Amino acid sequence: MFSTSQPNLLAVTPSEGYLLHLHWRDHGEDRVDLSSWIARWGSLDNPFQDPSFFATVQVGEYGWSVAWSEEVEMDTEHLYRLARYQAKESLEPETFRAWRERHGMSQLGVAQVLGISDMMVQYYEEGRQMVSKTVMLACKGYDALQKEQAA
After folding, report:
1. pLDDT tens digits, 10-65
2. In the chain, helix, strand, coil percent, each to 5?
3. CB of 123 closer than 8 Å to CB of 129
4. CA-based nearest residue to 81, from 126, 131, 119, 41
């Protein structure tokens, strides 16, 4: 499911391995693996070194974040994006940019190939907008056509 409305949480349940089960108000349910996010904390002052700390997660104020304490929380926009990336329903900005560069195209060239505006290409690469599932599938289709033509 891909929606443009602001994601809002109803409930969150922690699981082993730094997984969160998220129950969205209007977006169904997701499982999100936060192990890479937690690894970026490093070892100094990392509250997640104690696995019991991760288990204290709860829905933040008005459902706009998840929180472990007053100092440690993550907003729902980032959680929702991470869920879409992990579910392979969107491309991360770096992946989209690498796709463009791999094909040797400018932003304008990608816009023409995918049938979108060059401004949207820029938004996707900057992470200001999530790459829609339709655009992601168009990228895969373009790859398939290029492979077919090369054979």
Report:
1. 999 999 889 999 999 988 999 999 998 888 887 778 898 888 999 999 999 999 99
2. 45, 15, 35
3. yes
4. 131
Alpha-helical regions (H) of the chain: 35-39, 51-54, 76-86, 93-102, 107-114, 118-126, 133-150
Specify the CATH number of the domain 93-150: 1.10.260.40
Please name the fold of domain 9-86.
Answer: NE0471 N-terminal domain-like (3.30.2020)
Written as six digits, the tokens of 128 are: 């200001």
- Give the C-alpha separation, 136 to 130, whole Å: 10
* Pairwise CA distance, residues 125 & 51, whole Å: 35
Domain assignments of the chain as residue spans, ordered by start: 9-86, 93-150
How far is 128 from 44, CA to CA, in rounded Å? 31
* Residue the block writes with tokens 């992990």: 86
DSSP 8-state symbol, 62: G
DSSP character at residue 131? P
**Amino acid 4: pLDDT:** 53
CA nearest to 83, candidates 129, 25, 126, 130? 130
